[in-house]
Give the backbone structure.
Amino acid sequence: MIEPASMDRVSLQSLIDTVFAPWVRELGLRVTHAQTDEVHLSLPITAHHVHGGGVVCGQTLMSAADTAMVLAVSSQLGGFKPMTTVQLQTSFMRPISGTDTEARIIARVLRMGKSLVFGEIEVQDAYGRLAAHCTTTYALL
């Protein structure tokens, strides 16, 4: 079992700027809370992420969720280590309006083993209502 460490908000925000692909950085994610096994992000809602139905597209939400979990795992490891998403299961429960100002992403590490990490992510609208729930598995490389 890996012993929990921790990273602060500033260090995790720096990972967004240095580890992730440019298009992920363009999401504008901000780390708003960090602890050893949980990270909260704010996703600003812009027209760039709203589809013709007037709601935030699922691809944007899943990208934000995946990014949040990488940060939560990194926080528990005490720094970024190479990993890959093995599974990301998402249930969309309510749309997030394209007129909302932000979505909130909460990623939690449920169990960290030597090679696999299990987690869950909540995507909330600006009012704190659950919009999507994700379960995920990551392989530590």
In short: Residues 70 and 83 are 8 Å apart (CA to CA). The first helix runs from residue 9 to 19. The first strand starts at residue 30 and ends at 35.
